[in-house]
């Protein structure tokens, strides 16, 4: 059974930094894409960043230059380093694994909350 567990959320002041982690277990993929999404209260879930098995990364315009996605294959972890946080970054952050082959499918974590106070 594939499991994803996010951690690292909390409260931070505007201008500060936070690193979110997503730990995955129980999966086997020929190729994959890790994606971070976020959902602010009353809003839709939005794309933040992704990284694929070829280490290609993409970012939403709203976080480009401030957030950095990375992965540690040995630990089955994916991270997003968030710098220069703004109040509008306040949201529940979710990681998703898109797996091709093996454990084919989309898998979501339960989310971790980030609150940025201005």
Question: Can you describe this structure?
Answer:
The chain has 118 residues and is an all-beta fold. The protein is 0% helix and 58% strand. The strands form 2 sheets. Strands 2, 4, 5, 6, 9, 10 and 11 form a 7-stranded mixed β-sheet that branches. A 4-stranded antiparallel β-sheet has the order 1-3-8-7, with no helix packed on it. The model has no long low-confidence stretch (mean pLDDT 96).
Radius of gyration, in Å, reads 14 Å
The oligomeric status of these chains comes to: single chain
**Share of β-strand residues:** over 45%
Q: Provide the structure class.
A: mainly beta
Instruction: Sketch the major β-sheet.
Output: 7 strands, mixed
Total strand segments: 11
Shape: globular
Calculate the mean pLDDT score and round it: 96
Distance between the termini: 40 Å
Order of helices and strands: EEEEEEEEEEE
The tally of helices reads 0
Q: What features would you highlight for this structure?
A:
single chain; 118 residues; mainly beta; four-stranded antiparallel beta sheet; 58% strand
Question: How are the SSEs placed, and which strands pair?
Answer:
Blueprint: E1 3-7, E2 10-13, E3 18-25, E4 31-39, E5 45-52, E6 57-59, E7 67-72, E8 77-82, E9 91-100, E10 105-108, E11 112-117
């Amino acid at each position: 059974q594939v499991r994803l567990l996010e951690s690292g959320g909390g409260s931070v002041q505007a201008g500060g930094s936070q690193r979110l982690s997503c730990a995955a277990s129980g999966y086997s993929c020929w190729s994959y894409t890790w994606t971070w999404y976020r959902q602010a209260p009353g809003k839709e879930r939005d794309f933040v960043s992704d990284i694929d098995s070829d280490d290609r990364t993409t970012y939403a315009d709203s976080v480009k230059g401030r957030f950095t996605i990375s992965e540690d294959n040995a630990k089955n972890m994916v991270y997003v380093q968030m710098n220069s946080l703004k109040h509008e970054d306040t949201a529940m952050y979710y990681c998703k694994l898109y797996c091709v082959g093996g454990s084919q499918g989309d898998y979501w974590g339960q989310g971790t909350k980030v609150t940025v106070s201005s």
